[in-house]
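Workshop exercise sheet. Pairs work together: one partner reads the sequence aloud, the other fills in the structure field after running the prediction. Swap roles for the next sheet.
Pair: D.N. / O.F.
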Amino acid sequence: MPTYQYRCTNCGNELEIVQKMSDKSLTLCPKCQKETFERVITAEGGFVLKGSGFYKTDYSNSKPAAASAAPAPCSTGACSGKSCPLAS
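Structure field:
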């Protein structure tokens, strides 16, 4: 459900309220009890993935660099920089 920001034009009271999209807008200010409560248009409606399994980089345009296909050289130096069958 989306979060809407409301502001009273009478007393300046501001609230963020979670509502269904099908719910009617609130008009009664809970602080001053006047019918001057209005929904505020904000630019904060970004799409955010939350929870385990969602990462900021999952759907980015840049692709990660591919791992090198060349085998790792021998760490002992006995193979002269070539891939060592013993190194795994």
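Discussion prompt: The beta strands are 3-8, 14-18, 37-40. What would you look at next?
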